[in-house]
Amino acid sequence: MKNACLILLAGLLFASPVWAVDGNEFLARLDKNLYPPSYEMYRKIIDIQPDGTKKEFTLYSIRKGRDKMVALFLAPPSDKNRSTLRLGDNMWLYIPSVGRPVRITSLQSVTGGIFNNSDIMSLDYGEEYNCEEIREEGEIYVLRLKAKSGAVAYDNLLMTADKKSALPIKIECHAASGMLIKTLHFKETKEFGPDFRRPSVLETESPLHKDYKSIMLFAGIKLRDFPDEVFTLNYLPNVESLRR
What we know:
This protein has helices at about 1-15, 25-35, 115-120, 125-130; strands at about 40-50, 55-65, 70-75, 85, 90-95, 100-105, 130-135, 140-145, 155-160, 165-175, 180-195, 195-205, 215-225. With about 240 residues, it is mostly beta strands. The chain has one domain (about 20-240): outer membrane lipoprotein receptor (LolB), chain A, CATH 2.50.20.10. The longest helix is centred in the first third of the chain and has 13 residues, at about 1-15. The termini are far apart. Residues about 5-20 have low confidence and may be disordered.
């Protein structure tokens, strides 16, 4: 009996340790894989109504760091030269005919579709959420994320991510009550540059908008640095000048 106990103790001492995955560290890796630290990109947003009618928007977007983002509407003609600015939890919309920026909220939508302003001007997930739980299910991780503040569009997220690539596959967005607001699907991973692969398509549907669907297509994501003055209210009328 004594020898058996000694053998068991030795096995415990010399066995390879099993380290738990740190959810916030994995989330930081996922954020890094989705976006460079400073970049420009082009996106198309397609809103599809139940009868199949589509409305399309083309945006030129830039971002710097974890909390600064600007988006400029290039199409349709009715929205051309509108621009948005996000600084942390604060968002503004500039309409040329109005001549001044107006405050908007994360739950509103500048396109009028299922994608709200938080989706269109998204920041790093680690900037807005803490990981409260991460569990392993085969080749994926399932993360339960909790909003850091009440200014965030969704109180909690249930994220499914690929373990190997550390990229999201699906995100269920919930209100504080637990109600499912929408589901985001990340699809068609492609190469945007050396050692930079990420989903090129984001689709969403919502039980609150039956038979409606919105799609976001990503293109031309390139590393580019910008001065801080670009991310100010005064610069919004001049965003077009940044395009090369």
